[in-house]
Amino acid sequence: MTTLTEHSSAPGTGGTTNAAVARSLNKTYGTGDTAVRALTNVDVSFEAGTFTAIMGPSGSGKSTLMHCLAGLDTADSGRIWIGQTEITALKDAELTRLRRDSVGFVFQSFNLVPTLTAEQNITLPVALANGTVDDGWLDYITGTLGLTGRLKHRPHELSGGQQQRVAVARALLTRPHVVFGDEPTGNLDSKAGAEVLSLLRRSTRELGQSIIMVTHDPLAASYADRVVLMNDGALVGELSSPTPDTVTAALTKLGA
Ligand code: ADP
Q1: Can you give the pTM of this predicted structure?
Q2: 87-96, 113-122, 187-196: least confident range
Q3: What residues does ligand 1 touch, defined as CB less than 6 Å away?
Protein backbone atom coordinates (compact mmCIF):
# COMPACT_ATOMS: atom_id res chain seq x y z
CA MET A 1 0.00 0.00 0.00
CA THR A 2 1.24 3.49 -0.82
CA THR A 3 1.49 5.70 2.21
CA LEU A 4 0.81 9.40 2.18
CA THR A 5 4.43 10.28 2.85
CA GLU A 6 5.47 8.45 -0.31
CA HIS A 7 2.75 10.06 -2.34
CA SER A 8 3.31 13.36 -4.10
CA SER A 9 -0.26 13.82 -5.35
CA ALA A 10 -3.61 14.05 -3.62
CA PRO A 11 -4.67 10.51 -2.91
CA GLY A 12 -8.12 9.52 -4.11
CA THR A 13 -10.38 7.10 -2.33
CA GLY A 14 -12.30 4.25 -3.91
CA GLY A 15 -11.41 5.25 -7.45
CA THR A 16 -12.38 8.92 -7.02
CA THR A 17 -10.06 11.87 -7.47
CA ASN A 18 -9.81 14.65 -4.97
CA ALA A 19 -9.88 18.36 -5.70
CA ALA A 20 -8.26 19.18 -2.37
CA VAL A 21 -6.85 17.21 0.54
CA ALA A 22 -5.53 18.27 3.95
CA ARG A 23 -3.56 15.95 6.20
CA SER A 24 -2.75 16.58 9.87
CA LEU A 25 -3.14 20.36 9.61
CA ASN A 26 -2.28 22.34 12.69
CA LYS A 27 -2.26 26.09 13.13
CA THR A 28 -1.88 28.27 16.20
CA TYR A 29 -2.22 32.06 16.24
CA GLY A 30 -0.09 33.93 18.77
CA THR A 31 2.14 32.51 21.48
CA GLY A 32 2.13 31.85 25.23
CA ASP A 33 -0.97 32.84 27.18
CA THR A 34 -2.62 34.43 24.16
CA ALA A 35 -2.08 31.44 21.81
CA VAL A 36 -5.22 30.28 19.99
CA ARG A 37 -5.27 26.86 18.36
CA ALA A 38 -7.20 27.51 15.17
CA LEU A 39 -6.67 24.05 13.58
CA THR A 40 -5.98 20.79 15.40
CA ASN A 41 -4.96 17.72 13.35
CA VAL A 42 -7.44 18.41 10.57
CA ASP A 43 -7.71 15.58 8.02
CA VAL A 44 -10.18 16.17 5.22
CA SER A 45 -10.64 15.35 1.53
CA PHE A 46 -12.85 17.08 -1.02
CA GLU A 47 -13.87 14.89 -3.92
CA ALA A 48 -13.53 16.42 -7.39
CA GLY A 49 -16.77 17.58 -8.97
CA THR A 50 -18.60 17.97 -5.68
CA PHE A 51 -19.90 20.90 -3.62
CA THR A 52 -18.93 20.94 0.06
CA ALA A 53 -19.96 23.39 2.78
CA ILE A 54 -17.75 23.97 5.82
CA MET A 55 -19.83 24.84 8.87
CA GLY A 56 -19.41 25.29 12.60
CA PRO A 57 -19.77 27.87 15.35
CA SER A 58 -18.06 31.25 15.03
CA GLY A 59 -14.35 30.86 15.82
CA SER A 60 -14.32 27.11 15.05
CA GLY A 61 -11.62 27.45 12.38
CA LYS A 62 -13.66 27.47 9.15
CA SER A 63 -11.97 30.51 7.60
CA THR A 64 -8.51 29.40 8.72
CA LEU A 65 -9.05 26.00 7.10
CA MET A 66 -10.31 27.56 3.88
CA HIS A 67 -7.46 30.09 3.74
CA CYS A 68 -4.88 27.33 4.28
CA LEU A 69 -6.49 25.09 1.63
CA ALA A 70 -6.51 27.99 -0.84
CA GLY A 71 -2.86 28.84 -0.17
CA LEU A 72 -3.78 32.26 1.25
CA ASP A 73 -2.44 31.35 4.70
CA THR A 74 0.09 28.77 5.87
CA ALA A 75 -0.41 26.04 8.44
CA ASP A 76 2.22 25.36 11.14
CA SER A 77 2.34 21.69 10.17
CA GLY A 78 0.57 19.24 7.91
CA ARG A 79 0.23 18.85 4.15
CA ILE A 80 -2.23 20.16 1.57
CA TRP A 81 -2.84 19.15 -2.03
CA ILE A 82 -4.81 21.06 -4.66
CA GLY A 83 -5.50 18.60 -7.45
CA GLN A 84 -2.26 16.73 -7.99
CA THR A 85 -0.02 19.42 -6.49
CA GLU A 86 1.17 19.47 -2.91
CA ILE A 87 0.93 23.18 -2.17
CA THR A 88 2.71 22.87 1.16
CA ALA A 89 5.84 21.91 -0.84
CA LEU A 90 5.74 24.94 -3.16
CA LYS A 91 7.93 28.03 -3.14
CA ASP A 92 6.15 31.41 -2.92
CA ALA A 93 6.26 32.14 -6.67
CA GLU A 94 4.95 28.65 -7.50
CA LEU A 95 2.18 29.03 -4.96
CA THR A 96 1.19 32.40 -6.44
CA ARG A 97 1.01 30.82 -9.90
CA LEU A 98 -1.02 27.87 -8.62
CA ARG A 99 -3.45 30.21 -6.85
CA ARG A 100 -3.86 32.18 -10.06
CA ASP A 101 -4.27 29.19 -12.37
CA SER A 102 -5.88 26.49 -10.23
CA VAL A 103 -8.00 28.23 -7.60
CA GLY A 104 -11.07 30.43 -7.97
CA PHE A 105 -12.59 32.64 -5.29
CA VAL A 106 -16.09 33.97 -4.72
CA PHE A 107 -16.30 36.34 -1.78
CA GLN A 108 -19.19 37.86 0.11
CA SER A 109 -18.43 41.22 -1.48
CA PHE A 110 -18.39 40.72 -5.21
CA ASN A 111 -15.05 42.54 -5.74
CA LEU A 112 -15.86 43.68 -9.26
CA VAL A 113 -14.03 46.59 -10.90
CA PRO A 114 -16.73 49.31 -11.28
CA THR A 115 -15.31 50.84 -14.47
CA LEU A 116 -15.15 47.55 -16.38
CA THR A 117 -18.03 45.74 -18.06
CA ALA A 118 -19.22 42.37 -16.79
CA GLU A 119 -17.30 40.63 -19.56
CA GLN A 120 -14.12 42.60 -18.84
CA ASN A 121 -14.44 41.74 -15.15
CA ILE A 122 -14.84 38.05 -15.99
CA THR A 123 -11.78 37.99 -18.23
CA LEU A 124 -9.61 40.33 -16.12
CA PRO A 125 -7.63 37.60 -14.26
CA VAL A 126 -6.81 35.92 -17.60
CA ALA A 127 -5.81 39.28 -19.10
CA LEU A 128 -3.61 40.11 -16.11
CA ALA A 129 -1.89 36.75 -16.50
CA ASN A 130 -1.33 37.48 -20.22
CA GLY A 131 -3.43 34.43 -20.99
CA THR A 132 -5.82 33.76 -23.84
CA VAL A 133 -9.53 33.65 -23.17
CA ASP A 134 -11.23 30.48 -24.38
CA ASP A 135 -14.21 32.20 -26.07
CA GLY A 136 -16.24 29.00 -26.38
CA TRP A 137 -15.84 28.32 -22.67
CA LEU A 138 -16.64 31.97 -21.83
CA ASP A 139 -19.87 31.71 -23.88
CA TYR A 140 -20.77 28.43 -22.23
CA ILE A 141 -20.18 29.64 -18.68
CA THR A 142 -21.94 32.96 -19.15
CA GLY A 143 -24.83 31.15 -20.86
CA THR A 144 -25.09 28.66 -18.00
CA LEU A 145 -25.02 31.53 -15.50
CA GLY A 146 -27.70 33.47 -17.41
CA LEU A 147 -25.40 36.42 -18.13
CA THR A 148 -25.41 36.45 -21.92
CA GLY A 149 -27.49 39.64 -22.18
CA ARG A 150 -25.59 41.40 -19.39
CA LEU A 151 -21.99 41.19 -20.58
CA LYS A 152 -21.72 44.80 -21.77
CA HIS A 153 -23.19 46.20 -18.54
CA ARG A 154 -21.10 47.72 -15.78
CA PRO A 155 -21.53 46.41 -12.21
CA HIS A 156 -23.74 49.37 -11.11
CA GLU A 157 -26.19 48.42 -13.88
CA LEU A 158 -26.55 44.90 -12.47
CA SER A 159 -28.47 43.54 -9.48
CA GLY A 160 -26.55 42.05 -6.54
CA GLY A 161 -27.38 38.55 -7.75
CA GLN A 162 -26.17 39.35 -11.27
CA GLN A 163 -22.96 40.86 -9.87
CA GLN A 164 -22.30 37.71 -7.88
CA ARG A 165 -22.96 35.61 -10.99
CA VAL A 166 -20.29 37.69 -12.76
CA ALA A 167 -17.94 36.90 -9.86
CA VAL A 168 -18.81 33.18 -10.21
CA ALA A 169 -18.13 33.32 -13.97
CA ARG A 170 -14.78 35.02 -13.28
CA ALA A 171 -13.91 32.23 -10.82
CA LEU A 172 -14.89 29.49 -13.30
CA LEU A 173 -13.18 30.89 -16.42
CA THR A 174 -9.73 29.46 -15.70
CA ARG A 175 -11.23 25.97 -15.08
CA PRO A 176 -9.71 25.94 -11.59
CA HIS A 177 -9.31 22.72 -9.62
CA VAL A 178 -11.35 24.28 -6.83
CA VAL A 179 -13.57 27.31 -6.33
CA PHE A 180 -13.58 28.57 -2.75
CA GLY A 181 -16.62 30.50 -1.59
CA ASP A 182 -16.56 32.66 1.55
CA GLU A 183 -20.19 33.31 2.49
CA PRO A 184 -20.90 33.92 -1.22
CA THR A 185 -24.55 34.73 -0.60
CA GLY A 186 -23.99 36.81 2.54
CA ASN A 187 -24.84 40.08 0.76
CA LEU A 188 -27.78 38.80 -1.30
CA ASP A 189 -31.50 38.65 -0.62
CA SER A 190 -32.95 35.16 -0.33
CA LYS A 191 -34.12 34.92 -3.97
CA ALA A 192 -30.79 36.07 -5.45
CA GLY A 193 -28.95 33.90 -2.92
CA ALA A 194 -30.95 30.82 -3.97
CA GLU A 195 -30.15 31.57 -7.60
CA VAL A 196 -26.41 31.83 -7.00
CA LEU A 197 -26.38 28.66 -4.88
CA SER A 198 -28.32 26.75 -7.56
CA LEU A 199 -25.77 27.92 -10.12
CA LEU A 200 -22.88 26.84 -7.93
CA ARG A 201 -24.50 23.43 -7.61
CA ARG A 202 -25.12 23.28 -11.36
CA SER A 203 -21.49 24.13 -12.02
CA THR A 204 -20.50 20.91 -10.22
CA ARG A 205 -23.04 18.87 -12.21
CA GLU A 206 -22.65 20.46 -15.65
CA LEU A 207 -19.11 21.83 -15.62
CA GLY A 208 -17.50 19.29 -13.28
CA GLN A 209 -16.41 22.12 -10.97
CA SER A 210 -15.32 21.39 -7.38
CA ILE A 211 -16.58 23.88 -4.80
CA ILE A 212 -15.74 24.42 -1.13
CA MET A 213 -17.84 27.04 0.63
CA VAL A 214 -17.73 28.46 4.13
CA THR A 215 -21.15 29.48 5.38
CA HIS A 216 -23.07 29.87 8.61
CA ASP A 217 -26.43 29.54 6.84
CA PRO A 218 -28.07 26.07 6.98
CA LEU A 219 -30.20 26.89 3.94
CA ALA A 220 -27.10 27.78 1.90
CA ALA A 221 -25.35 24.62 3.10
CA SER A 222 -28.33 22.50 1.99
CA TYR A 223 -27.34 23.19 -1.64
CA ALA A 224 -24.07 21.33 -1.06
CA ASP A 225 -23.52 17.59 -1.54
CA ARG A 226 -21.82 17.39 1.82
CA VAL A 227 -21.34 19.45 4.95
CA VAL A 228 -18.20 19.13 7.07
CA LEU A 229 -18.59 20.32 10.63
CA MET A 230 -15.91 22.03 12.69
CA ASN A 231 -15.69 22.83 16.37
CA ASP A 232 -12.73 24.25 18.33
CA GLY A 233 -10.42 23.89 15.34
CA ALA A 234 -11.18 20.22 14.75
CA LEU A 235 -13.31 18.35 12.27
CA VAL A 236 -16.14 16.87 14.32
CA GLY A 237 -18.46 15.32 11.78
CA GLU A 238 -20.07 15.51 8.38
CA LEU A 239 -23.45 15.20 6.69
CA SER A 240 -24.13 13.97 3.19
CA SER A 241 -27.14 15.20 1.21
CA PRO A 242 -27.77 17.88 3.85
CA THR A 243 -31.14 19.54 4.35
CA PRO A 244 -31.74 22.78 6.29
CA ASP A 245 -33.18 20.66 9.12
CA THR A 246 -30.31 18.15 9.37
CA VAL A 247 -27.78 20.99 9.23
CA THR A 248 -29.59 23.02 11.90
CA ALA A 249 -29.84 19.94 14.15
CA ALA A 250 -26.12 19.20 13.74
CA LEU A 251 -25.19 22.83 14.52
CA THR A 252 -27.49 22.92 17.55
CA LYS A 253 -25.71 19.83 18.89
CA LEU A 254 -22.43 21.75 18.61
CA GLY A 255 -23.96 24.67 20.51
CA ALA A 256 -23.68 26.97 17.48
P1 ADP B 1 -14.40 30.85 11.92
O2 ADP B 1 -14.13 31.12 10.48
O3 ADP B 1 -15.00 29.49 12.16
O4 ADP B 1 -15.20 31.92 12.59
P5 ADP B 1 -11.59 31.42 12.27
O6 ADP B 1 -10.85 30.44 11.43
O7 ADP B 1 -11.76 32.81 11.77
O8 ADP B 1 -12.99 30.78 12.68
O9 ADP B 1 -10.86 31.53 13.68
C10 ADP B 1 -10.45 30.39 14.45
C11 ADP B 1 -9.79 30.89 15.73
O12 ADP B 1 -8.57 31.55 15.42
C13 ADP B 1 -10.66 31.90 16.49
O14 ADP B 1 -10.48 31.68 17.86
C15 ADP B 1 -10.09 33.24 16.06
O16 ADP B 1 -10.29 34.20 17.06
C17 ADP B 1 -8.62 32.90 15.87
N18 ADP B 1 -7.99 33.74 14.84
C19 ADP B 1 -8.33 33.79 13.52
N20 ADP B 1 -7.53 34.64 12.84
C21 ADP B 1 -6.66 35.14 13.76
C22 ADP B 1 -5.57 36.07 13.70
N23 ADP B 1 -5.21 36.64 12.55
N24 ADP B 1 -4.91 36.35 14.85
C25 ADP B 1 -5.24 35.75 16.01
N26 ADP B 1 -6.25 34.88 16.15
C27 ADP B 1 -6.95 34.56 15.04
Answers
A1: 0.91
A2: 187-196
A3: 29-30, 36, 38, 56, 58-64
